[in-house]
Structures are given as C-alpha cells and as structure tokens.
Specification:
- With 294 residues, this protein is of the alpha/beta class.
- The strands form 6 sheets. The protein has a 3-stranded parallel β-sheet.
- Helix 2 links the parallel strand 2 and strand 3.
- Helix 1 crosses helix 8, helix 3 crosses helix 6 and helix 6 crosses helix 7.
- The radius of gyration is 20 Å and the shape is elongated.
- The protein starts with a strand and ends with a strand.
- It is an enzyme of class 6 (ligase).
C-alpha cells in the first residue's frame, strides 16, 4: 500500500510554500488509495519557535487535512537514531570526526551543498583528538534519483558532497540520518516534498543502502519563490498562512500545482472534493514557481 507523509519543522509557521507541498503530498497519497502520515521534525531545539508545532497542527486541521494515525515527533525517537548510528559504526561505515567548521573551510573546496569534506578523519582523528561528530563514509560513483516529476537527477557524493554528518558536534541528530530512520520505521513508500530537498536525496539513499533498507519512491514538487526569486521560507520571511482565509489559499495552492478549480467551487469541502476527483501529477509543473501578488 502507498504510504506518504508530510514532515514540517516547527522552526516557524506554515507559509504558502509549505501549504503547496502539503497539498501535493496529501492529494498524491489519497489519489492512490494510500495513507498520509504527519511527522513533526523537531530535532533542532535552538531553532524551534515556541508553540509552532501546535500551531501547525491547528492550521492543517483548519484547512481540512486528515492524517492517518497519531502525529510522530522526532524528539521522542532518539533511541531509533542511536541504534542506527551504532549499526553503521559497528559495520565500519560511520566514523567519528574531530574537525571544526573552520578547519574544514580551510582545507576543503565548495561543493553542491557547502564544503566537500576531505575525509580527514576517515582513518581516525589525527593527533589523538576526540571525535565531535559522526560521518558516513560515502562510496565513489554516481547516484541517480529517478524522480517522478523532476526526472533523473545525478550526483556523485564523493565528489560533490563528501562524507556527510549523521550526528552533529553539538549532539543533535542530522536530518539525513533521522529522516531515513523515520521513513523506514514508519513504512513510508513514497515521499512527495519540495524540490529544494532534491540535492539531499542521494545522501539519504546512501543511508538506506548502508542500513540495508529499501528506499522509497521520490517526487519533488516545484519550489515557490518570492518576487526576488528567493525560495519561500522562514529565512526569507515568508508570511504565515491564515486559517481565516483557508478556502482562498487552498485554491491558490491548487492553481500553483497546475489544478484550476472551476468557478463556483469556493468552499473548503468543494475544493477538496474537486481536487480529489481531478488530481494528476502530470498537471504539476516542475517549477520553480513565483508566488503571485495577493
């Protein structure tokens, strides 16, 4: 059975970009007769906004989303991540790293997503220093993500990313490990999310392989941008969506995803019924898309 999910982070409130992702993820799951899970990715307490998790849940309910089962919280799943890291360390696929960001910047070149880690600690921390973080040792060679919307995406992890972090030096779990462990444990078969995360997908496939887990299918929806061409996000001060105007904002999200409800389809119930009957991934543009002025 198809099992999808939506996994917001409570580092801020939902905005138009996160709404369109939720809508696409939800409709793809329902159109395929599947389940849709909700998971709160609350693994970075210093960046979290107090009350944001509860506000996200209230907003999704007000917009008419219905998820299956209980909401999962990453902050309650540390044992799963620890067990996965111990497996990777025991098999020699993960290793402790003592390098600071300053040291890495001084000796590494820029890659697709920050500095390419040069493998300094692969054979042990130099000079008897203690490891601060844990990294996955990546293999050379190209990985191909067969994305249902974006097509084939290719990346050579060793060349473009380097050995990446699984457990951060500050003691917090890295997204790349936690998301794989969660999706595998929850039985997620298909992931529909924003195209800004496509660059991290090969890293996640490497974690699936290292843990001997089957990988899900992927579909990366178009990213929404503001007038300056910046991705809508908390960092670019994207305004939060309002539950007092839910029907209009749902219609706007559907239109951005290539689905234009007919005139007279105005209420939340009418919009969801129409969307469920008419949803097709073939209508969704690959993007990116600029959010129209309201």
């Amino acid at each position: 059975m198809y099992r999808g999910r939506f996994a917001p982070s409570p580092t801020g409130l939902l905005h138009a970009g996160s709404l369109s992702t939720a809508v696409g993820s939800y409709l793809e799951a329902r159109s395929r007769g599947g389940e849709w899970l909700l998971r709160m990715e609350d693994l970075d307490p210093p960046r979290e906004v107090p009350g944001a998790a509860d506000d996200i849940l209230r907003t999704l309910e007000a917009f008419g989303f219905e998820w299956d089962g209980e909401v999962a919280y990453q902050s309650r799943r540390h044992g799963l991540y620890r067990a996965a890291l111990e497996r990777l360390a025991a098999s020699g696929q993960a290793y402790a790293c003592c390098c600071t960001r300053k040291e890495i910047a001084a000796h590494a070149r820029r890659g697709l997503d920050g500095y390419v880690y040069p493998g300094t600690c692969r054979r042990g921390c130099p000079g008897g220093r203690e490891g601060r973080a844990w990294r996955l040792a990546v293999a050379e060679g190209e990985r191909v993500v067969d994305d249902r919307l974006q097509g084939a995406y290719r990346q050579d992890l060793a060349r473009d990313i380097g050995d990446f972090v699984l457990l951060r030096a500050d003691g917090f779990w890295a997204y790349q490990l936690a998301v794989v462990v969660d999706d595998a444990e929850q039985g997620v078969t298909d992931i529909v999310r924003g195209a800004d995360l496509l660059v991290s997908t090969p890293r996640q496939l490497a974690v699936y392989d290292a843990l001997g887990l089957p990988a899900p299918g992927y579909c990366h929806l178009p990213v929404l941008t503001n007038a300056a061409g910046e991705k809508l996000s908390k960092q670019t001060l994207a305004p939060a969506i309002s539950t007092g105007d839910a029907a209009r904002q749902l219609r706007a999200a559907l239109e951005l995803l290539g689905h234009v409800p007919p005139a007279g389809c105005e209420s939340l119930d009418d919009l969801w019924r129409w969307a469920a009957a008419n949803w097709s991934l073939s209508r969704v543009p690959a993007g990116p898309l600029q959010l129209p002025h309201s």
